[in-house]
Amino acid sequence: MNNTNKKPKSGRPEDEEAKLRQRIRDILDGKFVTLLMASVTLWALFGDDIRLLSTDKSADDYFFASYVIMLFLFILDIFFNSLVVDEYKYSFFFWLDVIAAISLIPDIPWMFDYITTIFGGLPYTANVTVNTTGQSQSAQSIAKKVLKSFRLIRLVRIVKLYKYVTKRDTEEQEQRLKEAQKLAKTARQAAMNREMDPTRLGKILSDTTTRRVIIVVLLMVIFIPIMQSTESDNAPTYGLQQLFWMGRSACTSSDQFECSDPNKIHWETNFGWYELVYRYTLCTEETDGDSAQYPLLWMYLPDYFENGEIHEITSIKKSDLSGIAWNQSENCSGKSVGSDCHLRDVEMLLAVYTPDECTDGDVAGCKNLQAYARFNIKSQSENEALMNVFTTIFVGIILAVAAVAFTADTQTILIVPITKMVLIIKSLADDPLKKIEKEEKTEDSDIRKEETTYVLEETVAKISSLLQLSFGEDGADILSKNMMSGEGELNLMRPGNKVSIVIQIINVENFTTISECLQEESPIFINKLSNIIHACCKEWGGLVSKNIQGSFLLVWRLPEVTDKDTDEDDLTNPAMQRTDIANRSLVSAIKTLAEIRRASDIQAYKVHPRIISRFGPTYSTDITIGIHIGWSIEGVIGSESKIDPAYLSPHISVGYNLVEARKEYGSTVLMSEDFYGYLSVKAKTCCRRIDTVYVNYLPNTFGLYSFDITEKELPVPETHQLGKLIKLQKLDSVNVESFQHKGVDYMFTLDSDIVGMQQDIPQHFFDSFRHAYVDYISGQWEEAKEFLEKALSYLHEDGPALSIKKFIEEKGKPAEDWPKSREL
Fold it and tell me: Where does the chain cross the membrane (predicted)?
């Protein structure tokens, strides 16, 4: 049946929802939306002040329309972020955005006046209403002050800008955390990565500090102006009060307040009234002769020339009656200001005076007994808008500087040390034996020593260092591989890894007897030897695996050789690398012998009383070195009570057999044929085949080689460091760097220790021994004895020659089934 026309099954609903959420989030985090919201934020901060500062009333509707659009965009931003952004809803930034959106409403009269009316309030207006009194004007002034303080909450949009600016860093931190969680092999590791991620800890603490700084600064900005007493210009109100009573002094109507006395005296003359009203038009001038700071637009008060009746005063003549000193504004006059007035309500000040006795509505003759004056305060409105711009910028700078300063201090004092500790703990959780890198000592680190975090950091580092020292570099590597290959936990039932290694066994001769003699000084003695052995091993690329009862196991890991490897004659070729590693192992052995021989603190044991009493005056600290190459299984051995990293292989036993063979052959450095085969030509010429042997746990026989040494005193330069090259004096000018591309083969030509140890052995000895060895292996023992005697005449105490001679003499003649080898 053909299924090609079948529709693919749709994904799970939760997958489709997740994809949709991600698409919406990508749009929100995109460059266009980010730039748009950043621009809208800046407009929300400065738009209304720009309106009052640089435009007139005719542009207001366009500004109000832009505020409506802003409010709509803010609501959309809050809505979609609540849908798709985890942990946003009801978070700090959520309420931040809600408050910022609400703070836009007072700037939109179309909405705010309607809301104010619904709740029984009075929108701010320059018109005269039935409720317009001095008290209502005072209440409106307080409301205006509170409203202006409330508008400062819009400064929280600066934090939105901060959020946009730091969004990229936040996204990168989250991405790194997600990648770390993907790499984690278990849920436990993922949770640990999430909870212990240092960038996450730093971000949380920085955000918390920033939020609190913002809240404190905004509360100060909002409430301090409300709590402060401000000086205001009361000249319009006091002048209006004076004009009211001067004008009312001419009233004669008996049915109005304070006009019932027909014999009352007029308080003013005609000239005085003109001068008084004229001076009132200039009541806002700063000094006499200047123009009024806030020009008078309209007056409605008792007219002295009209028997104290209240009506508009449209113009004022000059005191000399030569002309008009003031005219009311045609479009901005009247109890109700027309739409033709070029000024906004906030750009006009309405001064109101009502006699104190008339504040009670039951007093006869007080109906509509109020005086009004309207002033142009556009310059004050512009100054306030300009100061608002400066205030917004200043507070924004304060917020930024405070947030950065607090965050920087927190970063330096707390986050950086905690981050270091978290990184150390996290790395130790992944790999308990990972080496901790210590920072270089500086003045800051000396100051930090008094901090608790520094003490904790140092404690964790010390614990880690103790673990690493306990297991050793090689053991730490084995344990790390064991733990990192699974769930980050030690699994004793996990198979080991098969590796190829160079095995070097260093054995301290008579160590048990020496320990009995030295007793409590034994650790000092063996540690002095360990210092030399470990230093030489590390200098030439080896790893110290184990120290047991005066016996040291050192290893060199060999790279695996494949068919794809090149035949290049440099260290990029794995075969060349194996040769170089074998050379390094032999160099390490020879340098260890040389360093022990010339170490004064070790040679001082020759005269130790307890040593002399046991060994006599001829004692010297001797070591035996056996070197072999073979495979081994590296793994962790033990139980939940105790573990040890170890190598398991019969080839390890070969190394121990080689050091035991000193009793038979008397040679200090013994090597197997497997190891000899990897050496370079120069290294091989320094070695001598001394026998063919077998062990009962390996199927094949193998050659036995030695590196011959003499008792010659070895010179050492003053600046010499343990294990390093000491050039022959005649070759001191040779540049070693020109040879290093081929490894350490140069050591067998240039080094004073390697060359000097064999310098006094005559060549005739080697020739005679070689002939003796060939005859010995081929079964011609009589001829072999003759060459052995000849070799011994050149080197009387040669151990291998004496061993073969002894073996021939004991056996007499070779058996018919002579295997051409003997047991090691």
Answer: 28-46, 62-80, 92-112, 209-227, 385-406
